[in-house]
User: Fold this.
Amino acid sequence: MTKTQAENIDFTFRMLYVLAILMIVDGHIGSFDYLSFNGLFPYQNYHIALFVFVSGYFINLKRTYKEFITYKFMKLIVPLYVWNFIYGLIVFCLNKYNGFNLGGEFSLYNLLYAPIADGHQFIYNMGSWFIVPLFGVQLIGFCILKPLNEEKNAYPSSFIILFFLLSCLLGFVTIQAAPENLGERNIALTGFRIFYFLPFYALGVLYRFQLKKYDTLNSIAYFFIIIAATVFLRINFPDCDIIPAWLDVVNAPATIIFAIGFLAVFFWLRIAKISAPVLKASPTLTYLSTHTFDIMMHHFAGFMLVKAALSPLGNFDAVSFKNNIWYYHFPFNENFIAPVYIFITIVIALFTGFTSRKIYRILYNIKNVRQTFQKGSLDYEKQSKRSFND
Assistant:
């Protein structure tokens, strides 16, 4: 990384990516939740929302509508469907020939429709359920805010605030309406997911253009306010919880759910700001921060490989391994093995993404060489005919 490139990177928000993806991987191996501060900040209330918040912060309104849609579609939706097809084949082979009973059928429904309305169809890639809602949120945000950038690169504060308030209103309505859907895997669920995340996206936009300049309070006072407010809400609403994948159970008013989520976002934002120099000094963490898509997509598959590697040790339950994605094998002390799961799974996921891109580039280069060769052959043939006729 050059000095100029480093200066253009917002390491605070890159660090927020790192923290968020660590929470997601950690949250999927049981009840360890190393970063939840003993349950004060339960992951599911905000960890995925952190990605949406950062996405809002990094909004780029300089692209045209066509450029934006094309870019996001190629970056998010195309890889989603490519990997969905690959994992569908893996599930088909494991279930048919290796005695597994995980994931759905290799059908048109699961290949084409389920990635939009569900996201959990082939189990090993179920972390990708979040991609379509993220695409929807980004599309809505861009279409609403793009007109502000058409003329003078101006962002009227009143419009930004209005966008945030309207997004919150939609989020409140969603929280009240979503449980009626009973977690049914349909287009309505996709809409509920999008509108649940929209306030966090709008908060990211609001922070970048309005709030960031006021974020100067010293960390001691800052953390005291955030923690005191969170403790107060947790005491008064002890059952407050929400799982954004399904939005089928709501145990608190919408205002409280979003208040707790926003407080957690600001809490981790300051943590990221303090720890940003660590990211800046670490090429490994910098790489991780720019490849969270790989980890989100592949970490359940990574878990399965770690389980298989640990199977010779201790009392491994092969039946549960093949039938229950949430079965984890801990041959030794859980608090020792859980970090091993997290670390190796992240390495596997990053390696999978890296290798797949290398393979794609090789195939792409082969295609280009072949096309160049064919074009050269045709040009030679035309030139030969032209010479002969002359």
Observations:
- The mean pLDDT is 90.
